Amino acid sequence: MSIPNEALHKLAREIEAQAAVSQQQIGLARTQMTSKQREQRLVRLTLSELAGLPDDAVVYEGVGKMFSSAPLPNLRQKLEGQTKELESDVNKLNQRLLYLETTHKNSREHIEQMLRGR
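Given the sequence above, the corresponding structure tokens read:
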């Protein structure tokens, strides 16, 4: 039993649309992952700079357009929490990127299979 020509065209358009959406989302996920990794490097650099300071050192934290004095142990704890959160975000984005790349690859394979089978 053969699929009508019109149905094949409709199916091909749907798969092509899905592939285009996946490609767009792949670019967005890569951009977000790069941004999170950059932020993660900055937090780690800040933590390494703070590691050399004594616990009673006066440090300031940026709050909007001003700076506020913050106890060093609290600031370290906050930065370590940010590091863990960013690491989690990068892992989630990596999983999403893998899913999107697989979806895109499968869509392309389906289109090629339909064209060969025709």
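The helical segments are 5-51, 72-117. Try to locate this feature in the token string yourself.
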